[in-house]
Amino acid sequence: MPRTEELLSAEISSAPSPSHYMLANLALIRVRMRRAALAMEVAEESLRVQPSPIGYIAMAVALLGQGNREGALCGFDLAFHDCELHNNRLILLLKLILMFESGGQEEAISRIEHLVTRAKDDNDDEATYLYTQGSASHDAEIRM
Questions:
Q1: Per residue in 98-132, pLDDT tens?
Q2: Residue 133's Cα: distance from chain center in Å?
Q3: Exposed, middle or buried: residue 86 (CB in 10 Å: 0-12, 13-18, 19+)?
Q4: Which segment of 23-27, 30-34, 95-99 scores lowest on mean pLDDT?
Q5: Which residues have C-beta within 8 Å of that of residue 51, sequence separation ≥ 6?
Q6: Is it the case that residue 141 has pLDDT exceeding 60?
């Protein structure tokens, strides 16, 4: 991971105008390296360059890394505002995973179960598959 951070940082530094995608990816890498404060700075820079779902997701993950669960959930809410309609389901599932991982297991499971039921009622096979995969990930964790 340090080498990836180094290469991406060099790419960003050498660019006349760094891409918001590169900045958001650097923020995510830094969170993974447990450098949440630096990640937050880069996520904010990404959003200054161009508000985007990936920028808000990077900000949300950085906030969670700093222990700010409510701020992280708000970050995901902002990601919905700037995303394409077809990306809503994926962002919603990522938000539910964040809820689960940050101590809101019962709430996240309940929401996923509601989404699976709704998708089945709407005969939406794609959404049913996506939400069922989210639910299956939880079930696999319990068995471990």
A1: 888 788 788 878 877 777 777 777 776 766 656 56
A2: 16
A3: exposed
A4: 95-99
A5: 78, 82
A6: no
Compute CA distances 31 → 51, 64, 88, whole Å. 19, 9, 23
Chain centre distance of CA 18: 21
Phi, psi dihedrals of residue 33, rounded to the nearest 5°: -85, 10
Distances in whole angstroms, Cα of residue 96 to Cα of each of 10, 33, 43, 123, 128: 34, 22, 21, 22, 15
DSSP string, 74-142: HHHHHHHHHS-GGGHHHHHHHHHHHHHHTT-HHHHHHHHHHHHHHHHHTT-HHHHHHHHHHHHHHHHHH
